[in-house]
Amino acid sequence: MTTSAASLHQERIAYLEGLVSQARTAAAVFTQYTQEDVDRIVKPMVVAGLEQAQHLARLAIEETKLGVLEDKALKNMVATEFVYNYVKDKRTVGAIREFPERGLVEMAEPIGVIFSLTPITNPTSTVLFKCIMAIKTRNAVIFSPHPNAWHCCYEAVKIMYETALKHGAPEGVFTCLESHDLQDNVYLMGHKDVGLIDATGGPGVVRAAYSSGKPALGVGAGNTPVYLEKTADLNMAVVDIITSKTFDNGTICASEQTVVIDDEIYEVVLKKFADLGAHICNKKETEILERTVIDPETGFMQPTAVGQKATDIARMVGLSVKPNTKLLMAPIQGVGRKHPLSVEKLFPVLAVYRAKSVDEALKVCVDVNHAGGLGHTAVVFSRNDAIIQKFGEVINAGRILVNSPGSIGAFGGVYNDMVPTFSFGCGTGGGNSTTDNVNVYHYLNIKRVARRTQAHMWFRVPNQIYFNLNAVENLRRLASRSTVVITNPAMEQMGHVDVVRRQLPPQTLIHVSVIPDAEPEVKTVMEGVAALNFYKADQIVALGGGSVIDAAKIMKLKYESPEADLEELAAPFMDIRKRVVEYPTEKVHRARLIAISTTSGTGSEVTPFAVLSDKERGRKVTLADYSLTPDVAIVDPQFVMSMPKGLTADTGIDCLTHALEAAVSIYASPYTDSNAMQAIRLVFKYLPISYNHPDDEEARSMMHNAACIAAIAFSNAAVGVNHALAHAFGARFGVAHGRANALMLPHVIAYNASVPTKFMPSPNQRGYVAHKKYATIADLLGLGGDTIEEKVQNLVTATEQLLDQLAVPRSIADLGISTENFERAMPELSKIAFDDPSWRSNPRMPLVSELVELFWSAYHGRGVAKTKGSRKQTA
Ligand SMILES: [Fe+2]
């Protein structure tokens, strides 16, 4: 509590507490009202306001001595009828807006008790407006009017309260302080039961509201610039400006303050103003106004001039004007303290500026806007859309009004379709919380009931996949004028290139581009792109393992979209649907990409991924986008019959890892499961045969299919933590990818099957299912087991047995890496593994400490524990 509030007399405190208590009780009762209940009360209040519009205007004029009776009556009518027209069909109770397609419902909750300060300039209209808003939103209000507008506001509150009460509003819903005391305001602004301060008034009141520590709706001062551009309808503009600036003798804070006129029309416009009752001041008259209606000390307008008639002001300062003068117009040469009339003047004195160019006009308008009117209102009269748009861009105002009056235009609902209001938010420029025309939604706490949504999923594969022995013959069906074959030296030596060449239609121009058998570098890619351009290729055949196919994917990307920035496209992302970078979408499809895989592992022939080596920076980047997916995949086992044993094992394990990780991925779906599960079944059956009997055509064929099918699964479901670990470890110790996967695999299955320390956020999964998925796989493989735990353990054991049969190293220690060496590498290893995007689709989120544990489990190797849900080693 502040000192001034603390000095309040006990009796006064009791009085204020009584008001708050009454309002709180009313607000509590109000929460039980329905939409129909409040609507039933609002309508008669509006009618009462309309009926009493003139009466209240008269009271306001008598008390405040500001403004014009007729205009004040009009304001009371706008505050009731126009506001009602806006709110009558609005839902403000319970569910107010529903977005079924987004699973979102917005619920309205009243604020409770609102402490409201109202101004001297629009006294009764502001009260009427706020009472209607409060009933519509089921809030109770304690009013504290401006001290010089007390009685008229008290009467307005009384009329609204009695009408509301008569039609069922809770007792005590509106009260008005019986007398004015600044300390009352301080006390109520700090009261714990006041939910919101709604302060409409001068800067002092607004600042006090925002300083109270309570949520506050305070609106700032204005200084409305008007640009009268040469293409404007001049007659309309002049009438609008006079109407608006003289409305209620200029008391509305949105009214025009400086009109900036294009040089070409300046004289004619001033004549039109003069013809309609404006007095154009000469230099001497302007100087008189500058030192009289503006306080030379503060630079602000003189309160004595506020809301006075032009003729009265002229008489007050000693100017001689015609008796029917409506407006005093004073030419100024600039904006700021040296040009006193460039500030806000809530009376019918309008500054005028002659601009030599559009740029100058806009600059002066911006300067006026910044001289006390930030965030409030600005006006432009023009028929030039480009200038209107530019004006909207450079001016900082919540309301930018086009070809319409400032004051009456800002109200909303009269000259435009803005929300009717008597409270103009000025945004942060004006030190306010909103730029809105304050309305019923600002009197509500809007709650959002958000139902769980499911992300859209997909299943994307190449258009054509040809498989089984001699599938390469399908090349004959694919017409091409110019084909570039991307391959590596081994394929040439083994005669595979000739096999492909023979299958291409005879009329095809064929060029063979041999690239190194390694992860493609930018240089390799750009040489390939040069060849594609030189031969004007309409078909690219990638013949090789993952690195050759990846190179061809990137060559095609750069061939079709030369402007594609590979480094930018490789930017990290979490969800491919929301990622920052965009792959070219309007590229020309210049060449068909046919991928013929010669290993049974990566499945690059069907994936949307491509790894690029950046030797200069010593790193690899992965490109991922479905536009990289080859158009045609050929899965012909003749190209893998001669794979050496080691490569057969390594690539086969990679394939198994892809399938197992896709099966438990958070992006797994029935579509990917069907592929993942079948791939796992094929690997367990055919990999040992392929390994032990390399000439077994069926086994080779099935393993080749398995690699492709597993790749289809992980292209759509992604991989997991096994790959994150293997990527980091493989790169650091130079271990082949499949072999590195093998070292991690049993440990990762056990890890994923146990209760996660941290679950991975995943809207598509209902509950944790990784262990159940593994159990299903165990069933599919016929491994036995009665419980999920047993089945998981049997899968781990079967995986270990499979790895044993393939004679791959079963521990990192087996590779000859010393404990000390591994320990030294661990901080970097775990850091790189945690940075690897692969685990983002893993069913459990790995802690860095868990990655370290997994690395050490892989270091020590075999013997994953049979303990339920544990990863503890038995040996
Ligand atoms: Fe892999």
Could you explain how this protein is built, in words?
The protein is an alpha/beta fold and 875 residues long. The strands form five sheets. A seven-stranded parallel β-sheet has the order 10-11-12-9-8-13-14, sandwiched between helices. It has a six-stranded parallel β-sheet with strand order 16-23-20-19-17-18, sandwiched between helices. A hairpin with a 4-residue loop joins strand 21 and strand 22. Residues 654, 657-658, 723, 737 line the site of fe (ii) ion.
Key phrases:
single chain, alpha/beta, Aldehyde Dehydrogenase, Chain A, domain 2, Rossmann fold, six-stranded parallel β-sheet, 14% strand, elongated
Q: What layout of secondary structure does this protein have?
A:
Elements (H helix, E strand, L loop, with lengths): L2 H4 L3 H21 L4 H17 L1 H12 L4 H19 L6 E6 L4 E7 L2 E6 L4 H15 L2 E6 L4 H17 L7 E3 L5 H8 L6 E4 L3 H9 L4 E3 L5 E5 L5 H13 L9 E7 H13 L2 E3 L2 H10 L17 H8 L9 E5 L17 E7 L2 H13 L4 E7 L3 H10 L2 E6 L4 H5 L32 E7 L13 E4 L14 E6 L1 H5 L2 H8 L5 E6 L7 H13 L4 E6 L1 H15 L5 H4 L22 E6 L11 E6 L4 E6 L7 E4 L9 H20 L5 H23 L4 H21 L3 H13 L3 H17 L16 H11 L7 H18 L13 H17 L12 H13 L15
Parallel strand pairs: 3-4, 3-6, 4-5, 6-7, 8-9, 8-13, 9-12, 10-11, 11-12, 13-14, 16-23, 17-18, 17-19, 19-20, 20-23
Antiparallel strand pairs: 1-2, 2-15, 21-22
Helix pairs in contact: 3-5, 3-6, 3-7, 4-5, 4-7, 5-6, 6-7, 19-20, 22-23, 22-24, 22-26, 23-24, 25-26, 25-29, 26-28, 26-30, 27-28, 29-30
The structure holds fe (ii) ion.
